[in-house]
Amino acid sequence: MLKKYILLCLFFCLPFFLKAQQYGLFNTKTLFDGFENPAQKTFVLDSSRKFASNFFLPYFGLSGANKGNSDLIRRAINEGKYNAANLPLRTGAINTVHENTNIYLLTFRIFQSYKWQKEMGFSWQLRSDGHVDYTNETLAILDSYQRFDTNPYDDVFNNDGYAQSYHQFSMTYRENYNKRLAFGVKLSLLSGITYNKLNISDSYFLLDPANDLINVRVKGSYRASFVKTNELSTHTLVPTFRNPGMAFSFGTSYNAKSGVFLMANIKDLGFIKWRKSAYINKINAAVNIQNLSQKSSNQIRNEIADIATDESDSTSFFSPTNAKIDFMLSKAFTLSTPDFTYTPSLIVSKNLFFKGGDAAFVNKFKYRDLAISAIPSYNFNNLFFMGLQGLYQTPNFEIFLGSDNLFKTVTQINGAVNRDATIGNGYNGASFYMGLGFKFGNTVEHPQNSSTMPGIGDEKPGFFKRLFSVFSKKK
Predict the structure, then answer these.
(1) Signal sequence span per UniProt (predicted)?
(2) Is 454 part of any domain?
């Protein structure tokens, strides 16, 4: 049923928002760490092999949450029943829904040089992100227009949000500037899949049973890469670059003598250009939906949804990517034995152009090759999460499994499996991520141990070394 009314959902801005950050994998030297945080190393001298990849094996993160009207949404998810009969109207309440997908379809990383610790990598990601604020009345109209009384409703559908999905093909490069400071860069070519953005600044609704009509007034804007669902197919997922884009990430890390580790990143700063067949609509419409008694609820919902898409102009436009800025501070402490360590880490991540961000406190306990991390975090949409991650990692193999929102994930799955809306309370949410990675080829040995070490001999200074040396030269 929801698929049938996807336009209505887009009109009232019920897509999702990106949030799968997997903070427990920061500063772990995994492939994820190396591609998400460009300055990070992924190889260990005298132990790791020269190449690393996930070989199309699972390497992904998924996350989502809804704050507001949790019981109604929980019943819809767990039991497949959507009933807004008890939903309070005229409260002015604004609800939030968000989701994140970050799938590494393929990764390949190369150890280039012992000197300056140069590494180069290539990756293919499938990503989506968005953020939506919506009103109670939005959910009510999805149930039935008869949920509304005959008094006028002002600003009833003032929703704001977006959803965007795309392929990301990237090249990463990192090197040490000196023994403590490192820099890295990630350059990406994007191929847009879908885009929808709606902002309603003014709205009005009046049910007039005496004249058998509804009066709806809406003012705002709407942009989309498609309007009708028949414009989408399995071919839409194929990266054709008809909606091309670019993104840039830059990172740096510093290991202090005291053992404190600092990392900072600017991630995915870029744009996508949606082709001329995309749609833009400046909405300023007042519509009378007549003959209510002769129409089904489905017809009425479709007529309301059409307000956002009618009179749309086909034209190209640009959309920004969900760029972020990250900062990390951590230090490792030895516990009972040198093999047993505890590493607390403070991470702050903020979206640059859209709402949202997180502050996380990662508590990693590592014994030899096994690490368990407890990760409480606060989302700037006023949501609290409790994450848990398990990581088994040797110099040439890694496997991890975790959740940024463990308790909500468990109750959400339990309720859905048992089809029971009474399981769980508070906001709705779920998060899950996992990954497998391998290293292969020759061992990246120290030059004192091998005569075949790559990059030894007539090696030029590193890229960042040459770049920053320009500013240090005397005029």
Answers:
(1) 1-20
(2) yes
What's the start-to-end Cα distance of the chain, in Å? Answer: 70
**Residue at 463 is within a domain:** yes
Per-residue tokens: 274: 């949606």
Residue 1 covered by a domain: no
CA 285 – CA 453 distance, rounded (Å): 69
452 to 348, 396, 449: CA distances (angstroms)? 42, 19, 9
Give, for 411, the enclosing helix (H) or strand (E). Answer: helix 406-418
Within 87-235, strands assigned E span 94-113, 118-135, 153-154, 160-176, 181-208, 213-224
Phi and psi at residue 190, to the nearest 5° = -110, 150
CATH number of the domain bearing residue 437: 2.40.160
- DSSP per residue, 220-270: EEEEES-SSGGG--GGGGS---SSEEEEEEEEEEEE-TTSEEEEEEEEEEE
Q: What are the backbone angles phi and psi of residue 380, rounded to the nearest 5°? A: -70, 0
Parallel, antiparallel or unpaired: strands 357-367 and 213-224: unpaired
Q: What would the two tokens of residue 331 be? A: 């230090």
The CA-atom distances, in angstroms, between 92 and each of 74, 96, 136, 310 are 21, 13, 8, 27
- Cβ proximity of 30 and 400 under 8 Å: yes
Burial of 82 (0-12, 13-18, 19+ CB in 10 A): middle
Locus of tokens 């833009």: 280
The total domain count for the chain is: 1
- The single residue listed with the structure tokens 């953020």 is 131
Pair type for strands 244-255 and 317-320: unpaired
pTM score above 0.85: yes
| CA 90 remoteness from chain centre | 32
Task: Report CA-CA distances (Å) from 227 to 230, 311, 384.
Answer: 9, 11, 35
Residue 375 domain-assigned (yes or no): yes
pLDDT digits (tens, 9 = 90+) for 293-311: 888 887 888 888 788 777 7
Residue 260 structural domain: 6-472
How far apart CA 154 and CA 203 sit, in angstroms, is 6
Q: Are the C-beta atoms of 358 and 328 separated by less than 8 Å?
A: no
